[in-house]
Structures are given as C-alpha cells and as structure tokens.
Design goal:
Length: 333
Amino acid sequence: MSFDDHAGFDRPRRTRPRTKDRPDYSDDPVGLVRTIDRGRYRVVLTGDDEGREVSAAKARQLGRMGVIVGDRVRLHGDVSGEEGTLARIVEVLPRDTVLRRTADDDDPYERAIVANADQLVIVTALADPPPRVGMIDRIMVAAFDAHIEPLLLLTKADLASPAELEAAYTPLGVPVLTTQPGADLDALRSWLAGHRTVFVGHSGVGKSTLVNALIPGAGRTTGVVNDVTGRGRQTSTSAVVLELPPYPADAPADAERSWVIDTPGVRSFGLSHVTRENIVAAFGDLEEITAGCPRGCSHETGAPECALDLAVERGELAPARLESFRRMLGSGQ
Ligand SMILES: Nc1nc2c(ncn2[C@@H]2O[C@H](COP(=O)(O)OP(=O)(O)OP(=O)(O)O)[C@@H](O)[C@H]2O)c(=O)[nH]1
Ligand SMILES: [Zn+2]
C-alpha cells in the first residue's frame, strides 16, 4: 500500500527530521572548489547556476576538515558571486578519489592535494630538466594507491628520444604520449575528454605551455628554465581546476564536461601513506599470482620463492612487466 492509496493519510512534510543542531542544507547549491587563495575558496556553481564563480570561506561546523581543490561542496549564504560577498562552505560531499602525498617519506602528515580526479597525467620533460624515473615512479604509485588512472606525457621530444621511458612504463600498461613544440594535441585531447585529470610534474617541464595550448585563454604563466640549475621558476602556487573546451568540437551539448587540474611544480613526492598491499592491489593480474607466494612475501627481487618469479619462469608473466612492477614496489614502503 502506498501513501496515496490511503485517503486522508497525513504525509510527513519532511523526509528527514530537522534537529536543532543539524540544520538542513539539502536545498543549498553545490559547487566545485576551483582554487584556494589565502584561505578563501573559489567555487564554481554546478546545477541551476552552472558556471557562476563564488568566493567562500569554511563554515565553523566543518571544524578541522580540509577542503581541497576538486572538492564538491555545498554553499550557504550569499551565492550571488558579487564583489565583496562571501558564502559559507557547510558540507563537503563524499569524494570519489583523493590524491595524497607527504612532503618526504618520513613526514607523518599526508597532504590531500586534489579531490575527485579520475586520471593523473605525469608530465615529464625528456630533457631540460632531465627526466627522473624515481620521481615518475613515485607519482605513479600515488596514483595507483588513490585508484586514479596514471598516464605519462613526455614533453620536449624535440630535445631527446622517448624510447627509454616508453620501455620503462608501457609494460605496466600505462599509456604514454610524447609532445614537442607545434605537435598535434588531438591524442591528448581525446585522453582528457570526459575526465577530470590532474596534471603533476616537476617545475619547468612545460605543463603551463600545454595547458595554455589546450585551453585558449587559460593564461597559465610559463616559466623560464634556469640555465644553471635546470629548474624552472616556480610560477604557479595553488592547484586550479580549468574546464576544457568540448572535444571533439562537435561533441553533443550534454557530453560529460572535461576538467584539468593544474598543480604547482613538485620537487618531491613522499609516499609514507602508501602500503605495499595497495600497490599490489593496483595490478589485478599480479595480485592474483601473489596468492601463491609464501606468507609475508615482499615480492621484491630475490624474495625467496616469490610466485611472480615462478610465473616468469613458466612464461606466464613478461619479465619487463615484473621488472617495472618491482620498481613501483621499491618506491613505496
Ligand atoms: N624545447 C622545448 N621547450 C619547451 C617545450 N614545452 C615547453 N618548453 C619550454 O620550457 C619552459 C618551461 O615551460 P613551462 O610551460 O613554463 O613549464 P611548467 O612545467 O609550467 O613550469 P612551472 O610553471 O614552473 O611549473 C618554457 O621556456 C617553455 O617554452 C617543448 O616541447 N620543447
Ligand atoms: Zn611474492
């Protein structure tokens, strides 16, 4: 029997009880945290007021809960977006993913950098500054740990060959693309279409140059690589969400929106929050094989009777895949 069948039944007006200390904000608008600037959050509204940008501060009831770029938040108060107005962030909606890092491996405090990304593009220059495989591995492990799909984008292919890096990462199943000045970016655009992709890379690798090429008018400041240190100037300070133009250009109007999240250049990527189990779990086929390992097996090179080695001997696992995987394991704890 439904309520409607029951003549005269007094239907409750609210489905959820409203209590004194928990006001009901469910009618308040939701937005996406675009960037954070001196304790103020820039939030782009979604839904009815799609696209309007509002300045907001964290409401006291959120306590110490962090609000990060990419978060979907509920706003209360003045959401007109007019100069001088300030809305309050009263709720952080559940996150699909959280990309984390620690300052270094001994740092017990993990920092959540970006919420709700489903892809991570590791931007690496083939030269100037030279690639650091250890750093790429670390960022990749952070992506696997967070259930974010990693992709590798190699810039400055006009300066050096990508062959070595391609050989190091394709066995992991990680897609690799190369670019150089004037390169056709359509392959990259189709990677990004319909996704929320965070771009991570060392300063000076050409991240801003790419973002500007993808998003005309993004106005990301491009730096100059220092001739002495080979490092780029740290030109950007906060992560920022940028909307990509539709791709292909004739994509239907209701196609999934695509976002990139540009992050400031990183120099280190601590992983003290990542466990061996999480890295193994990111490779389903290998995890299955490790079911045959001795209890407590580290799966590292030389681990006695590691089932991964036996699988290679039996020709069931490509040696290059095991080697690349072990590099990942070595990056974590
Ligand atoms: N040769 C070559 N130079 C490039 C390429 N892409 C970018 N550059 C140059 O590399 C320098 C750094 O590029 P940016 O785009 O500022 O690098 P970034 O990664 O955004 O650096 P930060 O803003 O410091 O994080 C600039 O001088 C670019 O012109 C490329 O494919 N080939
Ligand atoms: Zn093992």
